């Protein structure tokens, strides 16, 4: 019974990882199409693409080793915080910038 449960959980993990991969590729496609339609690329767009690339790298490492190295979530978090700081306008509250920089 234990072996069967382990196989079912392993299968569910692979399905969810595949869904994450397909969703990430779809999001990349939509982001690129948005940039093409706008005929303009901002730094925030590029950072979002880097986040997507890191997610794909995390999926690849998980499929190879069945583990997630801690560096990938850290890179994603750092890039996401950078994107958040860049997206804030000059009119935003300066305290928020300090909180985000502290994160």
What's the short version?
With 103 residues, the chain is mainly alpha-helical. Helices cover 83% and strands 0% of the residues.
Structural topology:
Layout lengths: L1 H37 L4 H23 L5 H17 L6 H9 L1
Helix pairs in contact: 1-2, 2-3
Account of the 3D structure:
The protein is mainly α and 103 residues long. The protein contains four helices and no strands. It has helices at 2-38, 43-65, 71-87, 94-102. Helix 2 (43-65) runs antiparallel to helix 3. The protein is extended. The termini are far apart. 4% of the residues are buried. The mean pLDDT is 87.
What is the molecular shape? extended
Total E-strand runs: 0
Residue runs with pLDDT of under 50 for 5 or more positions: none
Helix-and-strand structural type: mainly alpha
Task: Considering the chains and any ligands shown, give keywords for the structure.
single chain; extended; 103 residues; mainly alpha
């Amino acid at each position: 019974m234990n072996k069967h449960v382990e196989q079912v959980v392993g299968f569910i993990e692979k399905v969810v990882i595949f869904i994450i991969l397909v969703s990430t590729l779809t999001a990349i496609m939509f982001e690129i199409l948005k940039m093409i339609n706008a005929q303009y690329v901002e730094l925030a767009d590029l950072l979002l693409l880097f986040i997507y690339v890191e997610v794909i790298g995390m999926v690849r490492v998980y499929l190879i080793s069945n583990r997630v190295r801690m560096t990938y979530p850290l890179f994603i978090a750092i890039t996401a915080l950078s994107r958040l700081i860049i997206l804030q306008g000059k009119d935003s509250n300066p305290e928020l910038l300090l909180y985000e920089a502290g994160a």
